[in-house]
Sequence to fold (98 residues):
Amino acid sequence: MALHACVAWAVLTRTARQALTLAAVAVLSLVAVGSAILLTLTYDDASALFSGAVPAVVPRPGLGGIVAVLAILISAGAAAVSGAGHRAMAVAPTNARP
Fold:
């Protein structure tokens, strides 16, 4: 959730502290990727996630981890591209009409 909020902030606003926003996106992306990979690798250890028996869960690997990592990479890329675009717009002269 925090990653999505930072990406939305980076994409939708032109802040003076764009580097700080992109750094937050980078840190949150690393945390999200780490969590996704950890959950993907421990998919068959239900006791790590739930207390007691979980009879409705049949552990098996799936595409969820791969999709999560791809979504995180796409979000981070969108924030990076947006940050570069905001910097380019700040540097470019404006064409004011009289």
Observations:
- The mean pLDDT is 75.
- Helices lie at 2-12, 18-41, 46-49, 64-91.
- The two ends are 45 Å apart (CA to CA).
- The chain is about 70% helix and 0% strand.
